[in-house]
Each structure stands twice: as structure tokens, then as C-alpha cells.
Amino acid sequence: MSLRTYILSLSDNAMILGHRLSELCGHGPTLETDIALTNISLDFFGQVRSYLQYLASIDGDQVTEDTLAFLRTEREHHNCILLEQPNVDFAHIIMRQYLFDVFQLLQLEQQMLSTDETIAAIAAKAIKEARYHQRFSESWVLRLGDGTEVSHTKMQTALDTLYPFVHELFTQNDWEKELVEQGIASDVKGFESRYYDTVFQTLKSANLSKDDIINRYAQGKNGIHTEHLGYILTELQYMQRAYPNMQW
Amino acid sequence: MGDQIQLEELFQQRIDAGGKIEPKDWMPEKYRKTHIRQISQHAHSEIVGMLPEGNWITRAPSLRRKVGLLAKVQDEAGHGLYLYSAAETLGISRDEMFDQLHTGKAKYSSIFNYPTLSWADIGTIGWLVDGAAIINQVMLTRTSFGPYARAMVRICKEESFHQRQGYEIMLGLAQGTPEQKAMAQDALNRFWWPSLMMFGPRDEDSPNTELSVKWKIKRKTNDELRQQFIDITVPQAEYLGLTIPDPDLKWNDERGHYDFGEIDWDEFWTVVKGNGPCNTERLKARVDAWEEGAWVREAALAYSEKQVIKKNQKAKLAS
Ligand SMILES: [Fe+2]
Ligand SMILES: [Fe+2]
Ligand SMILES: [Fe+2]
Q1: What's the predicted TM-score (pTM) here?
Q2: How many CA atoms lie within 13 A of B16 on its CB side?
Q3: Cβ contacts of B50 on chain A, cutoff 8 Å
Q4: Which domains does chain A have, with CATH numbers?
């Protein structure tokens, strides 16, 4: 049961952020950023498919990647709530992306060592993508943080809004601790300080400050989300709910 | 004046011999203007075309279809990028071209002014719209302007992949439940005629294509291309078990082609003139993206200028 939840939590992080990015397709500030963000969204959905195909093979019976992706309730999603935060503007999009990219890269490094071969293999493939994602989002944090006064203010606002959710990335539930002991899950506590070092360094270079930021309640990993998730799922699941049991 | 005539003769000889015109070569002003217009409008069609399909990305029915659609729409953005770059070689900036799009001075393909109302529309667009685009564009891979021809080679390869992907979506629906089949038929009903309109007005209403033929922008007329599309597509619809919404559609043994009914040219001109079902929304989406992105582009510029200054200061200190 814990393995199941763990796989879902990895997959849901990718799926919900991938969904947010997919909302932007055709609406970006430049053609180049449009292409890049769509590319990142594609990478995330690729990861989702790998995780959910693996999970479907464990679950057996009638379970497929699509029943797992499209037929769960809000409470059955285990993504961190940072990832479901809306696309307020390009500053929020980039900040959300950067705060997660640094985390995911460190997580995948550990995940490559998992005693679960499939989880390790998925990480080995995804890590190449994650390196590119971080390079992209970091370069934009710097550009916008240290660009104009307007862009700086927008980035600071985005940081103030999103940083309070970062701590959830490093919470460890009982099911996760158990898997860490078995060598299956990566130990987020093991790279927490490296994460903050990296992020602080970038924020400093971008003239952004997180000094007065206070953490917010965040229980997404336990299936308690913000109200945003329900609307994401409404769209995401529309076809599977309206036309059940069909092949597409 | 004599020089000018000689240059034009040499220019045309080169085209006639199958040679390519490159951006730095001499070219008649009219050639440059025509190509800027055509290539930029083609580029605009690619990026406006992202919108009706983008409309279904968040609601795609399966993960496989979502990934396929995301990749397709991303390809279209790439097509826009190559084409804007090709047009830029003729001395116009991307910003100027965007401005022409946003102010309504430049057109884009009217087909994208129709709404996507069901998932089957995504299959239909791939099958019919990318299919029609290929027929229009294959001849452009051999057009006289080098950058355009080369962009089209790459683009056509991807368009035929899109066409197959769209047809495959339709095949799934046609072999699916009654609801899925009805969805497919409804999409075909709505997109059939607009797809035929993609080839432009009837030949007798199409103003001088003479230069286009001379410069190898066009090798066949609108009506010839439209007929070719119909002849290819009818058997594909039959294979799907779908009915093309034209009671006059009939094989003509004598002609060796399908006869077909009259296109609603009033509808055609209504949409071309900006009053189609989604013209306002499509243009607004592009203008909004551009305006909301202004601060981002300004910041990127300011940042890169700062980097240059920093670099120069470092260099000064070092010397
Ligand atoms: Fe295209
Ligand atoms: Fe095209
Ligand atoms: Fe296409």
C-alpha cells in the first residue's frame, strides 16, 4: 500500500504540474518559451505514463494508466500543493517551476539508487529531462528577478506566494519513511539542505528575498488539497467521466 | 533601366532552370514583398492554428492522446518559428510581423476560425486540415525561394505525421461505441466544407496567379488542388464508414474525379473578412499573449544588456 501511494505521489507531482503547463500551450510570452514549456509538460506526462504503467502492472485486473490518471478523486491525489497553484502570470509559472525543478533533480539523483528497479530506471531517464528543466527555469528566475523593476516586483510577489508551500516537498509521511528504510524511496531529508543552498544562491543572484516568508499549511501528500485541484481534475477527467469505458 | 531588365531576366532564368533564390541575391521588389506576405501569413496560420487544438489538450481522453496532441501543437509552434525566420531573411522583423497579425493587416488560414467542440474535432483537424495543408504545401518544397523551400521540406514531413495521427484518432472513434461514431460524424459534418475552402476561391475568382506560377509558389490552381484533396479523402471517409455531408458527391467516370456540390462562398467570405465563429477570440488570444508577455520580453532584454555591461566592466578591470 505504501509503494502504491509513493508511486502516485511521484506521478501526481508530474501530472499536476504537467497539466498546469499544458494550459499555457499557445499563450506564452514568446514562441520560444511556449515551445520550451510545452516540452517540459511533455516530459512530465512521459514520466506520468511510466509511473502509472508500472502501477497498473502491480494493480492488475482492469487497471490501466488511464484509469489511474483519470478516475481518482481529489482525496486520492498525492501531489504537493505547490504544483497545483494557478498560472497567475509568467512570474508565478517560472517560480513554481524553479522551486520544483531543483527539488525534482535532487530527488531523481537519489531515486536512481532505489532498490526498486523500475523506479530507479524511470529516474535514470527522467534525470536528463530534469537537468534541462532546471537550467531553463533558473535562467528565467535570474532574468526576471534581475531584469526590470516590473519583472523584479512580479517575481518577488510570485516568490512570496509560492515559497510558503515549498516546505511540503520535504515532509515525510509514515508510508514514505517505511519505504526509505527499505531503500525504495529517496530520503528527502537527505538532500533538504542542498536544496535550500541551491535555491538561496539563485534567489540571491536574482535579487530576491525570502526573509519574511512564513510557511503555510500544506497536506497535499496526504490527499488534502487546495480548492484548485478540483477544477484541474474536472478538466483532466472530463472525457473519461462523460464517456466511461471507451477506447480512444 | 536596361540593367534592371537584365537583372530580372537573369533572375527568372535562374528560377526556370530550377535554381534557388537566396536572401542575399538580387530579387525584384515585388518578389520580396510577395514572399514576405506569403511566408508570414503561413507562419501566422501555424501559431493561430495552435489555439483550436490547444483547446483540447487539458481535456484529452487518454494519456497517449494528450502526449500526441501536446507534441503536435508544439510542432506547429516550431513551424511558426522556422517560417518567421525564413521571412526575416527578407528584411522584416518578427515583431513587425506580429504587429501585422495583431492589427488585422495580415491574414491567417480561415479554418482556424472554426471552434473545436468535441474530441473528434481534434482527429478531424489532423485528418482533413493537416491533410489539406500538405496538398497545398508539398509544391512549396520546390518553390524558388531557398529558405522557404527548405522550411517546407521539414514542415511537410511533420504535417504528414499529423495527418496520420489525426486519421488514427478517427479510426478509433469510427470503430468505437455509437456515441464515438456520432461524435466523429458530427465533426466531419462541421469541418468538411471549411476544409474545402482552405484551397481558396474558385479559379475564376482568384486574382492573378501568373506571378505565383512564374516564381514556383504555385504549381497547380486552387480548383485543381481542391479536386486532388477530394479524390484522396473520399475513399478515406468510406474506409471509416463516415458520410461526407455532400449529397452531390459522386464519382465521375468520364472525368476520373469526384463531382461535388457547391461551396457556400458567402460563408467563405464572411469568415475571411473577420466575421467567422471564432475570429474575434483567436485574434484576442494572440494579442493577449503578446501584451501580457511584454514585461517578460522587456526584462529579458534589460537583463542581457546588464550582462554585457558587466562583462565589459570585468574586461576593463582585467586590463
Ligand atoms: Fe504546421
Ligand atoms: Fe502549415
Ligand atoms: Fe500540422
Answers
A1: 0.96
A2: 7
A3: 25-26
A4: 2-242 (1.20.1260.10)
